[in-house]
Design goal:
Blueprint lengths: L22 H8 L4 H9 L4 E4 L6 H15 L5 E5 L4 H9 L3 E4 L5 H5 L6 E4 L11 H18 L4 E7 L6 E2 L15 H21 L2 E7 L2 E2 L5 H10 L4 E2 L4 E2 L2 E2 H11 L8 E5 L5 E2 H12 L5 E2 L5 E2 L5 H7 L6 H13 L19
Parallel strand pairs: 1-2, 1-4, 2-3, 4-5, 5-7, 7-12, 8-11, 9-14
Antiparallel strand pairs: 6-15, 10-13
């Protein structure tokens, strides 16, 4: 397998296409391992298990782990665990060298039967549909981490969290940092802080080496804030700009940070924001999308003085700045939507200001 990544100031320096024309090309780019991930996969020992692999990011993260391990010359199992309600996803992972296990992660006995692995990426959680099903949200986001920490107490764990734990931040302040106190709004965000507290508790009480990643927001052409806005512009919908600003990071960069963070897991947990460097304006972004799509765009509301914004500088100091800038992400997204590209059909609801999802 050929590695196209080279060392540099950015996360990846692979030559970027002017447009992305197929799902296969997109998923290859999303799973392309930069050199620092290859190096991390060479340093860490043993197999890697991805819990909740069937979500939006899991398949390309697992594939990146497989590709990086192969380039590093390290033999290891990459195992993806989920319920796999879509059998074709399981087949695709198999074709890419990722083993799969079907498992209801809230079944403690099923978790006990999972294979040992010294490296764990925890991606399971519940967000969308949380309103009205709050007990299930709390079970997935707080009870499950406790089960996983007991099962994998001797492993290093990278656990995904969210920038929602901070609450809203003044626009122009460069976003919340890892040292800012959490201020979650709504039950989803509160349960995500509960998830972090479970990992922190088991790190302190059982010595579980952990890294917690507060993601805000990963994007690719089929999903994310940019895809949401592009589809609305293309459909001629009026854009509400009350939640007027956002962060966006190319999903491949987020995948890379997660995998490389395995080598930095520690006790107490390392906490990293995973976010793009720009406070992107919803209004300006939609105007750019509209020009590229050849559509008019209209707006309603007025930009609030705060938004959900995170500062990713700590992570950039470890791994470099994101490899794909906002202008390229906007161009790729507009081109994808104009071509009628596939969608995951999962709106982000990033515009929510009351924490209800």
């Amino acid at each position: 397998m050929t590695c196209f990544a080279q060392k540099g100031a950015a996360l990846m320096s692979t030559t970027r296409p002017a447009s992305i024309t197929s799902v296969a090309e997109l998923e290859t780019l999303l799973s392309d391992p930069p050199q620092f991930v290859v190096d991390a996969m060479r340093r860490i020992e043993g197999d890697l298990i991805v819990l909740g692999v069937a979500g939006k990011m899991g398949p390309t993260l697992a594939r990146m782990a497989r590709r990086a391990s192969d380039v590093a010359g390290v033999r290891r199992r990459i195992v993806g665990v989920a319920r796999f309600s879509q059998p074709e996803m399981e087949a695709a992972l198999h074709a890419q060298g990722v083993e799969t296990i079907r498992c209801d992660l809230l079944d403690e006995r099923a978790i006990d039967r999972l294979p040992d692995a010294p490296n764990v990426v925890f991606m399971a959680g519940r967000k969308f549909g949380s309103a009205g099903l709050e007990p299930l949200t709390w079970a997935m986001n707080c009870h499950l981490p406790a089960l996983v920490c007991r099962r994998y107490s001797r492993s290093r764990i990278v656990a995904f969290s969210t920038g929602n734990v901070y609450g809203l931040t003044p626009v122009g302040s460069h976003g919340s940092t890892e040292d800012d106190p959490p201020c979650p709004v709504g039950e989803y965000a509160m349960s995500c802080l509960g998830r972090e507290r479970m990992f922190e508790y088991f790190s302190a009480s059982h010595g579980v080496r952990t890294a917690i990643l507060r993601l805000n927001y990963a994007v690719e052409m089929r999903y994310g804030v940019l895809a949401d806005l592009a589809r609305r512009v293309a459909a001629g919908q009026t854009i509400d700009v009350t939640m007027g600003y956002f962060n966006a990071i190319w999903q491949a960069d987020a995948n890379a940070i997660a995998l490389a963070s395995l080598a930095h897991a520690e006790t107490p947990p390392l906490i990293l924001n995973v976010a793009g460097p720009d406070e992107l304006s919803v209004r300006a972004t939609c105007e750019q999308l509209a020009r590229r799509l050849g559509r008019a765009v209209s707006f309603t509301g007025q930009e609030a003085r705060d938004a959900l914004l995170s500062n990713g500088a700590r992570g950039w100091s470890l791994f470099g700045r994101p490899s794909v800038d906002a202008s390229r992400l906007i161009a790729w997204t507009a081109d994808w939507i104009a071509r009628g590209g596939a969608t995951l059909g999962k709106p982000t609801h990033f515009e929510s200001r009351d924490g209800r999802f």
